[in-house]
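INFO  loader      accepted 1 record
INFO  loader      residues=245
INFO  predictor   begin
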Amino acid sequence: ANRTLGRGGALLIPAFAVGRAQAVLHLLSELRRANRIPEVPIYLNSPMAVNATELFCTYLAEHKLSAEQCRQMCDGVRFVRTAAESMEVTPLGGPMIALSASGMASGGRVLHHLERLAPDHRNTILFVGYQAAGTRGQAMLAGADRVKIFGSYVPVRAEVASIDGLSAHAGRDELIAWLGRATTAPKAAYIVHGEPAAADALRRTLRDDLGWHTQVPEHGETVELGAGHDNGHDRSATDAQAANR
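INFO  predictor   done
INFO  writer      dumping tokens
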């Protein structure tokens, strides 16, 4: 952030609207209070993220931040709600910090920011979550020198970086430890998320280590959940929705 802001650039953070955006706002607040980053305009440009942040600060018992930390998280942050407000913000350059969805740059208001900021070498695009194959985020992290936005190719001259440690998903070992605490094994477990190779590896681990009947459903496959159903083989299951995320 300091490197980007010091050269007069904008820091663009594509962030998932629920959970990740609030975590990043809290971290930015902590950095500002510790004088580790300068005071610059901060924009949260995502209606869903704005709504989620307001809920976050209303239901304090549902998370670990105090009321004061929630207040500090929102101090100095402009919540961009309407399309008209977004049109005022997206043309702006640095120094500033903008958070916008979607987190993989696959759609949403972040595309307007990318179109404006990606061609300038002074700016930085900072990804703070997993980037699925085929998304703009994954392409930029892989070194793409241009991305297609709104039907036209936009050059990527901005610095592109990522912070991998912010993932909110449990890893393989955490999932297995959590599932292993079950007092009763489900009739079946279905792995419905994750890359194919990782999902199959988790399936084998659950089968071998826990003795569970585990499947990775194929695309379009239908599974009927609940007691008393038999489709030729027992698919009645408590859906653990285990995933190598």
